[in-house]
Specification:
Blueprint lengths: L2 E4 L18 H12 L4 E3 L6 H5 L5 E5 L4 H10 L3 E5 L8 E8 L4 E8 L2 E3 L7 E3 L2 H6 L2 E3 L4 E3 L2 H15 L2 H9 L7 H11 L4 H9 L6 H7 L5 H14 L8 H25 L7 E2 L5 E7 L5 H12 L5 E5 L9 H13 L5 H8 L9 H30 L3 E5 L24 H19 L4 E6 L2 H7 L6 H13 L7 E6 L4 H15 L2
Parallel strand pairs: 1-16, 3-6, 12-14, 12-15, 13-14, 15-16
Antiparallel strand pairs: 2-3, 4-5, 4-11, 5-6, 7-8, 9-10
Helix pairs in contact: 5-10, 15-16, 17-18
Amino acid sequence: MNQTVNTLNSTTIISSSNLLVHKVPLIHTLITAFHSYEISYCHWKSNEHLDASMKADTDLDILFDEKQKDELEVLLMELGFKKFVSIRQKQYKDIEDFIGLDLHSGKVVHLHLHYKLTLGEPYLKSYQLDLHKKILESRVWDDEFGIYRSDPNTELILLYIREALKMRNRDMVKMYLKNKIYYSENLIREYNWLKRRCSSEDIKTILKGMFTNYLPVFFIVFGNFNRIETLKLSVIIKKEFRKNRQFLPLGALARRWYREICVKSYKKTSKFLNRPIMSHRINPRGGLIVGVVGADGSGKSTVTANLYNTFEKKLDVYKIYFGRGVGRVSLPRKILLGFKKFFVQNPSKKQLEKSAQSVADPRKGFIANVYKCLEALLVANEKRRNIALMQAARKKGMLVICDRFPQNQVMAYNDGPLLHHLSTSRNIILRAIAKKEASIYALAEANPPDLLFKLIANAEVVEARKPGEHSLETLEKKIAGFKNMEISGKCKVVSIDAARPLEEVLFIAKKEIWASYL
């Protein structure tokens, strides 16, 4: 039995953006909890743009004491963070992903938990250096942001080590063939920021505890910051830390190539084929299907686009359009639409609206009726295919966001069956066509979303957003249909006043999604 939540008359208050002075509220709560529960931590890299991390514009890379792992994970879950798992080709030893949602800003907070210092080439990170204890012991307090971060001297050394271990054979070839010696402006800015906060004596002291022969490293660190110097350092580091290598050189090369090829091909294949292919992170506890329905002008497309853009940066999100629009359509319907454009003039909006409610009307002519029957079947078949993709994505642990959702209660509109009136036709062929279409909509009814948002507003508000597209009478019928629409199964239905400001609608939607994402 589905649960219905009506927010049409609630008074949810949205905190204004002036809260985002130094930290988004969730990050402020997180850091405060670390101190209250005496969690040993350190934001260990990229502290030059720590302000961006505090505002959830970039990830939080925080090093923790492995002995506090169980206590830390319990604390994170109490604060609303959820553990997600990267695809196998992006998993690294002793690095975990916890993600939270700051409701006040609507931003996703991505917390990288580091228990060891796992570094190295992109797509592999084949070294694990025993420096985590030294980083935690030498951490410093940042008074501006109220957080412990790494000591600048240590962080500068780590910046060199990180860049040195990232170097691949292809990077060396590019360096010599293209004379690509210097780093990006962002990296140079980070280097200069750290250099101004370091002293040569402190650098020497730290290096003495890391390297057998520290002087060559010291001269590199206090020399020019470019790829040539980094290459020299790479040779020294790989020799010094050869026992800290997780893979043999040949094995590391094969693994890295395999991972890189997989990740890049997954991304390209997903975009090209529009299939639910994972390339980021998924929920190991299972996926979630979210549907958004409402009359035209209620804000469905705007809401679904915002939800997609919010979560897809960090999670694997699959977006499905269940409408009849001409966005992403099947090849057979493209061909059918091509015939229509060739033989028929473009109809007016009023004609389209009228035809949507009179599919296969015998008075409209045989050819027009055949066309409408074919179109209705093709649309239904696209919905059937999308239902299968939707369930496949959910099974993989993805977040599925559906713009519209098929229903089997209101006929001829609101994404319901278009040929229902033919189910009692004397023509056996027409009855068979109607039966086929009905079976697909019944399939949708048997596979409801986990969470459904009904965007409800009065007809005048909706018509003002899209003037002239539908009559007030038609809009009132559509809105009444969505209000009375019932969903089977365990679907949670949330009705939202679509006349509210967009930020309030999104606040409610994101809050419900995150609460449902168990």
